[in-house]
Amino acid sequence: MKRLLNCSASDFAHMNKQALLQSIRAAEGRTMIAEVMCQTAPLYPGLTNAEYASAFGADMILLNLFDVYEQRVEGLESMEEGEIIHEIKKLIGRPVGINLEPVDDTAEALEILDKLPEGRRATADSLAKAKELGVDFICLTGNPKTGVSNQAIVNSIKAAKDLDLLIIAGKMHGAGVIEDVAAVDTVKGLIGAGCDIVLLPGVGTVPGTTLTKTEKLIEAVHEAGALVLTTIGTSQEGAEKETVQQIALYNKMVGADLHHIGDAGMNGISVPERIMDYSIAIRGKRHTYIRMASSIRR
């Protein structure tokens, strides 16, 4: 199995869940996921944010605010029903996933919660629809003010695990619910439910995410046989280059298998240069430039 950082569009086109996982594991902490909003105007007209993020070095694209029943990605017009995910994958030649949000209507909220449409909630029906649409992975997490809880994430993992989709799950921040974002018992519960990749806040992104604490959590995940995605879900994707590079190196130091950069730097996307800066910090210009320059015809 090729390391993910050596894979091209033709490799990704034939990967199932297990092949993608093995490829990520073989890359040894050098896999970059960029999250982009798909229901806001793209950075510049004429392209999707997924294309911009890919051009600046992302290996995988995570679509935020995607509704599986009202399928729309700004920058792609007049798509036939059910074809939009396949079209994005053709355009960028990378694995594509979506966020679905495990809302807990009983959780104690920090603030007034946003009301989510059914197509963005992580239900059995929406998860099955995502599989039908052709996504390569599902991310079960929460945007701000959505009322996503750790227990609701566990329940959604159980609903998704029989769909043969790669499952990423966890919290980047509180998502409107009063509870610890991550603890050893929490991550073990996610893995026990069937999570393939545990999502954790990156070092220095939310209060208390120190090197020591994050390293302990990642050790627990690895001992249980799963992988870790560290995230920037706190708008620091719009910070200065040096801040992003520092977060990147800290996350690699504590053992991250994949690295995520969020969508709130500019118009539904990281500041594009920060994707490149993060990528260079964890794998150098060689692999970053190859990913940026590789044709979708390879």
Biggest sheet strand order reads: 1-2-3-4-5-6-7-8
Enumerate how many helices there are, as a single number. Answer: 10
User: Over the alpha carbons, how many angstroms does the gyration radius reach?
Assistant: 17 Å
The number of distinct β-strands equals 8
The H/E string reads HHEHEHEHEHEHEHEHEH
Low-pLDDT residue intervals, each spanning 5 or more residues:
none
How far from one another are the termini? 17 Å
Detailed description of the structure:
This protein is α/β, with parallel strands linked by helices. It is built from ten helices and eight strands. It has helices at 9-13, 17-26, 49-55, 84-92, 124-133, 150-160, 184-193, 211-223, 241-253, 272-293, and strands at 31-37, 60-64, 96-100, 137-140, 166-170, 197-201, 227-231, 258-261. The radius of gyration is 17 Å and the shape is globular. The mean pLDDT is 94.
Main attributes?
alpha/beta, 10 helices, about 35% helix, about 15% strand
Layout of helices and strands:
Elements: H1 9-13, H2 17-26, E1 31-37, H3 49-55, E2 60-64, H4 84-92, E3 96-100, H5 124-133, E4 137-140, H6 150-160, E5 166-170, H7 184-193, E6 197-201, H8 211-223, E7 227-231, H9 241-253, E8 258-261, H10 272-293
Parallel strand pairs: 1-2, 1-8, 2-3, 3-4, 4-5, 5-6, 6-7, 7-8
Helix pairs in contact: 3-10, 6-7, 7-8, 9-10
